[in-house]
Write a structure and sequence with these properties.
By secondary structure, the chain is α/β, with parallel strands linked by helices. The protein has helices spanning about 40-45, 70-75, 95-100, 110-120, 125, 140-150, 170-180, 195-200, 220-225, 225-234; strands spanning about 1-10, 15-25, 30-35, 55-60, 65, 80, 155-160, 185-190, 205-210, 210-220. The structure holds adenosine-5'-triphosphate and magnesium ion.
Length: about 230
């Protein structure tokens, strides 16, 4: 579904990605693990063309992403749930959910159908649909951020540290929701520092360090290399 080869990117004079290979097929979840500054967010930004590649190739759903805009890629199903959630605090929960759908050319009934689907997925969002997004708890805001992404009917959903600041119980609820979506064919790229939890839910994992891939493998064997991974996280 998404394949990146030898991805290199710099931000200013800072070489943030130094030749990364990545592949996630439909129905799979890939964990991207790494310490602060390892290049996790930069990798997601490079995959969705928020930052330009210096070299390397990315194909999404069988087509090169070169020269395509972030919005066009999102319309085709490459959707990014950003680090820090980026809920718009003064907009209602409902309006936050609608943000991503405005450029998709959907009918009112299609939009309402998708809203209902998200309200069924996270019933707390239905209860709180009229209140300001900023007044939700951290966990509810993360559910809202995930639902806002799912409103766009993604083929690939990229999540940047969804567990940050949340109780494990809520993180598990969100990861279980994503896992059930992979069974319907969604591909997920899960960026996390919470390595144990991420490996438990993923099929494959890569560990980034200093813009490079330090370790990779299937999640089950990576879980056996926990001590090694902790070394890269510290
Ligand atoms: N806007 C920017 N300008 C200059 N350097 C940046 C910018 N954003 C990120 N960097 C640098 O790029 C490198 C990778 O950062 P990135 O945000 O991708 O890491 P990360 O793995 O997502 O870290 P975190 O876990 O803290 O979110 C770091 O050295 C960081 O300082
Ligand atoms: Mg980051």
């Amino acid at each position: 579904m998404i394949i990146g080869k030898a991805i290199r990117a710099r931000i200013g004079s800072n070489q943030v990605l130094r030749g990364i290979d990545i592949e996630v097929q439909a129905g799979q979840m890939l964990a991207v693990i790494g310490a602060n500054g390892a290049g996790k967010t930069s990798l997601l930004r490079a995959l969705s063309n928020v930052i330009a590649l210096e070299s390397g190739e990315i194909s999404f759903d069988g087509r090169s992403t070169a020269g395509r805009s972030v919005h066009e890629l999102a319309r085709h199903g490459l959707v990014h749930v950003p680090q820090g959630r980026q809920i718009i605090p003064n907009l209602s929960v409902r309006d936050n959910l609608l943000i991503g759908t405005h450029h998709q050319g959907l009918s009112v009934s299609e939009v309402n159908e998708r809203l209902e689907q998200e309200f069924d997925r996270f019933p707390v969002l239905r209860q709180r649909q009229a209140i300001a997004g900023g007044s939700l708890s951290g966990g509810e805001q993360q559910m809202l951020a995930v639902s806002r992404g799912l409103m766009m009917k993604p083929k690939v959903l990229m999540l940047d540290e969804p567990s940050l600041g949340l109780a494990p119980k809520i993180v598990r609820l969100i990861l279980e929701t994503l896992r059930s979506l992979t069974r319907e064919g969604l591909a997920v790229i899960l960026v996390e520092q919470a390595a144990v939890l991420a490996l438990e839910y993923s099929d494959w994992a890569i560990v980034l360090r200093n813009g490079e891939c330090a370790l990779q493998g299937d999640a089950a064997s990576m879980a056996g290399s926990q001590a090694l991974i902790e070394g890269y996280l510290s």
